[in-house]
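Extended Data, panel c. Modelled sequence:
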Amino acid sequence: MADVIQAIEDVKQYDSNVDEQLVTSIFRSLGPVVYNRDTRYVACSDAYELEMVREGFLRKQLGIEGTNGELTDAIQQVCRTMAKSQFKLRVTFYYLLVKKYGKQNLF
């Protein structure tokens, strides 16, 4: 599922008014991550993975300030939103976080 069209279709499961340009920008910003099976998905059951999302994406890339608990709660909210999906596509996961925090202008 390393194709931007497939990523857009995945996002449509969670946002009926999907911002295709935002999905495309997030997809491109991830570079080779979207092509590697080990990094293409977010594992909500992996504490280290969620820490990397919190520190690397929310804090560093989006510049979100907040306590670890607040940011972890936001990540868990996305995990719950995507709970029906066995494989949580990283592009979709990040899209939902970007929209939650209103950081679309960064992409």
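The chain has a mean pLDDT of 94. This feature is highlighted in the accompanying rendering.
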